[in-house]
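Q: What would this chain look like folded?
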Amino acid sequence: SCLGTEATLAECPVKPWGHHTCNHVEDASVVCSGSGIASIPRLRLVGGLSECAGRVEVFYNNKWGTVCDDSWDLRDAAVVCRQLGCGVALSAPGSARFGWGAGPIWLDDVSCTGEETDFSKCQAKMWGIHNCHHGEDAGVVCAAGNSSSADLQLVDGPHRCAGRVEVLHAGQWGTVCDDGWDLNDAAVVCRQLGCGRAEAAPGRARFGRGMGRIWLDDVACAGSEDALAQCRAHPWGQSNCNHGEDASVVCSDAGATNTSTVRLVDGPHRCAGRVEVFHNQQWGTVCDNGWDLSDAAVVCWQLGCGVAVAAPAGASFGRGLDPIWLDRVACVGGEKALVQCRARPWGINSCTHEEDAGVVCSGDAHSCGVRLAEGPNRCAGRVEVLHAGQWGTVCDDSWDLNDAAVVCRQLGCGRAEAAHGRAYFGQGTGHIWLDDMSCTGSEDNLAQCQAHPWGQSNCHHGEDAGVVCSGTS
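A: My prediction, written as C-alpha cells:
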C-alpha cells in the first residue's frame, strides 16, 4: 500500500513477509517508462546481513563485478547508500571486509564528490581497468542496514548484558554459531545493547543451548561496527552448526539500566515515593546522605517520570525494610540509571531507615513513562515509552510537531522545535509500542493522545520517532 512518494518498496506498509492468501496466478508486474539500458549501472551490496551493508557490486556488460578499494572512502559510500535508498553511509570498509567477490573487477580509483545522485557519475578508471585483486574489494555499510537486525538479546545469563546471543529474524528468535566468534564480534553486541565493552566471547553453549533456528554462522566483525547486521557472515539461516556451538557474550556493564532495577514506593503514584533499588535478588533502600535533585533527576529519567520536582530525605514516604543498599549517591545528572552514579559500595553504610531517600517527579499515575534517548541532552532524542515494564519506541507514521509538543511538555523541556522520523537519533530495540500518534498538541502526556493499541504497528525501528525540545536540561 504505497503512497508513491517512497524511495524504496521497503518503506511501504505491507503484511509481514510470507503472509498472504495468493497464488502465482496473481503475481504483480511493472512496466516503467525507461528503456532499461540507462547510464545508471545496476548496483547491489552482497555478503552482508541486509541489502544495505556488504560488498559493492555493479552490473556491466551483462556481468556482476566488484569495485577496488583504492582511494575508496565515505564520499564514495555515500553515493552508493543514496542510490540504494539506504540512508547515510556509516563506513566504507575495504580489504574485502565482506568477503572476496568473483568475476571481473569493474571499477578502480573511484572518486565521488559525495553529491552525485548515482554511482555512474563518479570519476573512475575505464570499466575493467585496474591493478587490484579481490582481496581489495570495496564494501559499504549504510545506516538503514541496521533495520534487518532490529532485535538482539543476551539470554540465560546473570543479567541482560551477559548470556547466549540471540537475534530476531523473520519473526523468530535464533542463535549464533561460535565458528570464528571472538571479542571483535562480542564488542559489537555489547555496543549495540549499550552494555559497555566486551569482556568475554565464550562459545560451546556456555549459557546453555538455545532452541529453534541457528540464524548466523562465521560472523566476522571488525569490532568497530554499531550493530551485528553490519558485520560479515553467512546468509541468514545457513550454518553447519548445532546448538552445542551457540555463541555467548559477557559485557562489562551489569545490565542495570532497565527500569526494573529502581522503583518508587509508598507514594501517591508510581512517579513519587521512597527510592528502592534491586540488587543481589533483593529490593533495598537508599540512604539520604548527600541525596539531592541531581540524584532524583536520574531516577525520574530512568522511570520515564519527567523531571525531578523534589528529593525529600528523612523517610518522607515511610521507612523501608533492610537492606539499605546505597549511601552517599553522587550523580552528576547525565547518567541513564541510578546504579551508574558514584556511591559507596553496595550495602556499606551507617544509616537507619529513618534516613531513607525519596523522589517526587513531575509525572503522575495517569501518564505513560516517556524519555528521549541517544540525543545530545535529556530534551532531545529518540522517543521511548514505558509499557508493561518495558521500554519501547514510537513509529514515525503521522508523527508531527503536535505530538512532539506533548512529549516536550511532559518532560518539562519547553516547546517542540523538531519532530524527526526515520530513526534520526538511531534505531531503538525491543517493542515498537505506539503507531499513528495523533495528539492535538494540548495534552499533558502521550497517554492522552489517540493512537493504535499498544504494540500494534506496521513499522520497523528504521521508523523510530525523535523529538528536539527547546530546553536542554
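The first helix runs from residue 74 to 83.
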